[in-house]
Automatic annotation (TrEMBL):
It comes from the Bacteria. This is Phosphodiesterase. InterPro entries: Catalase_sf (IPR020835). It comes from Streptomyces ficellus. Residues 186-234 are annotated as: Disordered.
Length: 234
């Protein structure tokens, strides 16, 4: 409890000072589409209705730099997804992904990058997916394409050409298995205060939710950040 209270306080102070989230303070928000083929994917059912039935979903995508470092410096890059109506009308799914490796260990470790398309983005911590612990990741669809990882370049490139990712999941000892395709495009001129407040615990689905590992610490950090953004500056 003490460490969670400490995390809440730190996140609140940082968010209040920035008038933005404590981590990933500034970003580029764009619209997107998530295509879930469902039963068309090989490997049998996942045991999760959202993954096992075909569907096409509107997505709000926020691309960001984790520490908010100046452009020109590598930073861990964030890819936040809100999949609208994933669990039915008014029941979205939030996924928070961070630039990472793809190996069994590397998928759990943030990896700072210059190039936003140099590798995958993962949830870092595991999800319960169909009764098994798996990490979810987004892999750039075009391995030959590069994209500078500063926000101005991201906004310009997204306005010129869509960016696509293949969403996959894998547990320990499992190969990566695809379950959806994400296409992001058309950056939106949202003020940062009006962008969605992503929360993977509140916006999860039956059979598809984060494990409880470090849940209290992460929830306290999210809560502190939300409170800090709404505090009235002294």
């Amino acid at each position: 409890m003490a460490i969670e209270k400490h995390a809440f306080g730190i996140s609140r102070r940082i968010a209040r000072r920035r008038a933005a989230p404590a981590l990933h303070p500034h970003g580029v928000t764009c619209v997107g589409v998530l295509d879930v083929p469902g039963g068309e994917e090989p490997g049998g059912p996942w045991g999760v209705p959202f993954l096992d039935r075909p569907g096409l979903y509107d997505v709000t995508v926020r691309w960001s730099r984790a520490a908010g470092l100046p452009r020109g410096l590598p930073d861990a890059l964030g890819l936040a997804l809100r999949v609208e109506d994933a669990g039915g009308r008014g029941a979205p799914l939030d996924l928070l992904l961070t630039s990472s490796g793809s190996s069994r260990l590397g998928r759990h470790v943030p990896r700072p990058r210059y190039d936003a398309l140099a590798g995958p983005y993962s949830t870092l911590l595991s999800y319960r997916v169909g009764g098994q612990e798996r990490v979810i990741a987004a892999f750039p669809a075009d391995a030959r394409r590069s994209l500078q990882g500063d926000l101005a370049a991201l906004r310009q490139e997204l306005g010129r050409e869509p960016v696509s990712f293949e969403l996959r999941a894998a547990g320990g000892g499992e190969p990566w298995r695809a379950f959806a395709t994400l296409t992001a495009e058309s950056p939106q001129p949202y003020p940062e205060r009006t962008t969605p407040t992503y929360d993977p615990y509140t916006h999860s689905l039956p059979g598809l939710r984060p494990t409880d590992r470090l849940r209290g610490l992460r929830a306290a950090s999210y809560s502190g950040s939300r409170h800090g953004r709404t505090d009235t500056p002294a």
